[in-house]
Write a structure and sequence with these properties.
Largest sheet: none
Radius of gyration: 14 Å
Number of strands: 0
Number of domains: 1
Shape: globular
Strand content: under 5%
Number of helices: 4
C-alpha cells in the first residue's frame, strides 16, 4: 500500500469514528449503525477523500487550503469534530493518539 492510500484510510477511519461517536450520543443510535443523516454525511466524506487532489501533501482536511466540501457539509463536519474530538481519547485512544502525533509532526516540519 502506498503512502497516499494509507493516509486516505487513516483519515476515513478517524472521521468514521468521530461521526459514530456523534451519532450515538446525539441521535441515540445503537453504536453500530448510523442514522440516515450521519450515514449520508459519511458517504459524502468518503467520496471527497477518494478524489482528494492534495492527499499526498496535506495532513488533514481541516489544514488544507482547498475546500472540497460544500459549505453546509463543511460546517456539519466541523460541528461533529468539535463534539467528538475530546471524546476520542476515551473511546478510540489509538486513533486519537495517531491523529495528534500526525498533527504534531506536521507542525514541527513547518517550523523547521
Amino acid at each position: 500500500m502506498d503512502k497516499v492510500q494509507h493516509k486516505r484510510e487513516q483519515e476515513l477511519a478517524t472521521v468514521t469514528e468521530m461521526i459514530g461517536i456523534f451519532c450515538h450520543d446525539i441521535h441515540k443510535t445503537d453504536g453500530e449503525h448510523l442514522c440516515h443523516e450521519c450515514q449520508d454525511l459519511l458517504d459524502y466524506v468518503k467520496k471527497r477523500v477518494a478524489v482528494c487532489p492534495r492527499m499526498g501533501e496535506k495532513t488533514f482536511c481541516s489544514a488544507c487550503d482547498t475546500h472540497c466540501y460544500a459549505p453546509n457539509r463543511r460546517e456539519r463536519i466541523r460541528m461533529i469534530m468539535r463534539y467528538s474530538g475530546p471524546k476520542m481519547m476515551f473511546r478510540s485512544p489509538l486513533l486519537a493518539i495517531k491523529h495528534k502525533l500526525t498533527e504534531w509532526f506536521a507542525i514541527k516540519q513547518k517550523i523547521l
